[in-house]
Amino acid sequence: MKVLILGNGQLGQMLGQASIQLGDECLLINTRTNQVMPVGSHQALDWSVEQAMAWADVVSWEHEQISDAHVALAQSKLLTRPEQIKPLTHRQHEKSLFDRLDLGTAPWQAFANKEELADILAHWQGRAVIKAAEGGYDGKGQWRWQPGDDIQPLLATAGQQPGIVEAMIPFHCEVSIVGARTKNGDTHCYPLVENIHRDGILSHTLAGITKLPSHLQAVAESWFTRLTTDLGYVGTLAIEFFVVGEGEQASLLINEVAPRVHNSGHWSLTGSNCSQFSLHMRAITGAPIPPLSTQPTLMLNVIGVPEIPAFFWQHGQAAPFWYGKEARPGRKVGHINIALDGQSSGDEWVQSHAEQLQKLV
Ligand code: ATP
Ligand code: MG
Ligand code: MG
């Protein structure tokens, strides 16, 4: 099939590579310049977006900021209606969706301006995270607050745009589920993986390692199905959760949803028989999907450095992925998947090695 992806960043490139493996053809649109790009090249084709849309059998995206102009051109070639995922790009609408579908989430309240923010905080109990309604990623557009803190600096920053106030959750750990829903409405999910954030940015993911209470997988999958079915979603999607409590008492709260392939699924490029990118392509083209295997894998994000150290390129168990992007502080420029053997994959061993390896990046 001929697949057109809106967006040509690293996620678009990895989707493109998966499509090649499946024998499909794939082109990418640079959604800022409207250039039509082959996979793995900076050289644009001499094609208009209209031509690319006419060429494609199916159109999909690497990021959820889809313009109305692209939607109008793609029409029925988009298998998920973009207006259905629109609430997920606005924190108030996203939280309302979770409430409507009865999916547990941190207590929250929306504000439209700084007066409303001040009002909410005047009555707020406990610590809070304030998040801008739109545009935040990698912890940007977020502020922390606790009773007793001066609210003036907050009103001058967080209060300058609509947002939400959310209870700070004392979580046990953070996990995510990545999976796909097909055109037939079947869902296929990987096991929950553990995500460790530093300064609001995903630092590393542990797949097939963390021992989580077994009931959480069933809860996560049922919420995945409820959400993707309600959205009429086709393709790969990720849900980030906080795990609250331990053992049989443990429960999940949804933090946010990414209606696309996701950083916390990058381990699957080497740690599964079917990567999240291949899963997305199969879901949108109707190709068969196998039972999804998981080999214990540590995914380390490479953030803000000009290159991946030679140590990793030469390491027998490491698979580095370099995105070819200019390094800037806090910018994700690559990731490294490290295959772990059974014996060394106890939680503590991996956690301490992940910390050490992260310092080498
Ligand atoms: P992403 O890059 O994943 O899209 P984002 O900028 O959209 O991130 P969130 O995922 O909402 O932001 O928050 C980033 C991180 O901040 C979370 O993974 C978590 O570690 C912390 N965090 C966010 N909200 C809360 C909360 N209510 N309680 C505790 N920690 C939180
Ligand atoms: Mg986010
Ligand atoms: Mg997040």
From TrEMBL:
The keyword ATP-binding applies. The keyword Transcription regulation does not apply. Residues 95-285 form the ATP-grasp domain. It comes from the Bacteria. Keywords: ATP-binding, Nucleotide-binding, Purine biosynthesis. One of its GO terms (cellular component) is cytosol. One of its GO terms (molecular function) is ATP binding. GO terms for biological process: purine nucleotide biosynthetic process. InterPro entries: ATP-grasp, ATP-grasp_carboxylate-amine, ATP_grasp_subdomain_1, PreATP-grasp_dom_sf, PurK_C, Rudment_hybrid_motif. PANTHER family: PHOSPHORIBOSYLAMINOIMIDAZOLE CARBOXYLASE, PURINE BIOSYNTHESIS PROTEIN 6/7, PUR6/7. This is Phosphoribosylaminoimidazole carboxylase.
